[in-house]
Give the backbone structure.
Amino acid sequence: MSLQYLADKGMEYAKRALACDRGGDYENAIKFYKLSIELFTKYLALYPESPLSDFYKELISKYRDRIKVLEDKLENSSKSTESTSTQDSDMPFEVLMPNRRPNKTFSDLVDLDEVKKALKRAVVYSVLNPSLYPLGWPRAILLFGPPGCGKTELALALSNEINATLIHVTPATIMSKWLGDAEKNVKRLFETARKISSSGTPVIIFIDEVDGLFQQYSTEVGGEKRVRNQFLIEMDGLSGKEHSNVHVFIIGATNKPWALDIGFIRRFEKRILVPAPSKDVRKRLFEYYVSKLSKTYNIRDINYDELAEKTEYYSSADIVAIVKEVQADVVEEISERKISPHERPITMSDFLRVIERHRPSIDYSHLEAYREWNKQYGTLE
Ligand SMILES: Nc1ncnc2c1ncn2[C@@H]1O[C@H](COP(=O)(O)OP(=O)(O)O)[C@@H](O)[C@H]1O
Ligand SMILES: [Mg+2]
């Protein structure tokens, strides 16, 4: 076993741990953090003079802390949900009923008009009026585009538009179960969806960062392949006759459409680009988020055109972050100087200062790649 192998393998487990952690699958997160610590520790024992030794030591201590936090969480949640939980905690997905999630709809998202229109045509009208679709409606839709530009928000808003039950799946979480029964979990996922929809409630299976299903792991043991195949089979099943009246939709989202396998791409009948915000949209995003600040603060002399001009290649998420940083700066000042909010107006210079230190997160070369991919695989109608 080479040294590099130990380090790489450790990183791979760490990534899986983080993905599980983010997906709320704490048991597996703990398991993978522990595996990762074990491998890093071995690596350090064999190669103490490694230039990266401090880096790995830091990771080890960070993961140890995190394991403690997660173990506490698990202990508390098993105490508090013992009697009330109806959900199988072993499921690699999360079922969110309409009343259990943020209630944003399309109107809470600035612009993205083309995407909203496409989603209405593909999903909303078919739920409202299934009898108008003798030829059926699309079952699987892929949203692709640069990070931080609204894909996840759109999927959430769509499920609110049609009052659907949302089943949130993170492939990394599913894949982390390859040690056990990933395939069975995929079946359970679709069974759950069918069961819920048979009571008349539309269901959206939302696979965020769907490219994770197709990632190459250095240690494929065959499990990953079976999971993928099971997904494809289930997706085909949904367009079968026996489902012609069932409203189960699969919405996939990805920043890396080019990482997807062609067989998988084909199963998504609609492939919709969620674009980076144009200058006009960036202006509206600033106006939208600053207007929320204006309830608490005096806003003075903001030149929105200039803000939009200065933020080429900034994503919607970047713009939200900028407005939040301005807020944080102002709160800090108010707290330090012990003054009241109306004594500290928010001005253009607050924004310019923050933009100066906040780098854009969209890569120009990627934008080109999205356009190309859209030309080749995108569907707009
Ligand atoms: N059109 C929009 N209007 C308002 N806020 C937006 C819009 N698009 C994205 N955001 C905000 O940007 C952030 C990132 O959006 P998200 O949907 O997570 O991006 P993605 O899934 O494409 O990476 C969120 O805070 C979201 O509220
Ligand atoms: Mg997202």
Q: What stands out?
A: Residues 3-81 form a domain with the Methane Monooxygenase Hydroxylase; Chain G, domain 1 fold (CATH 1.20.58.80).
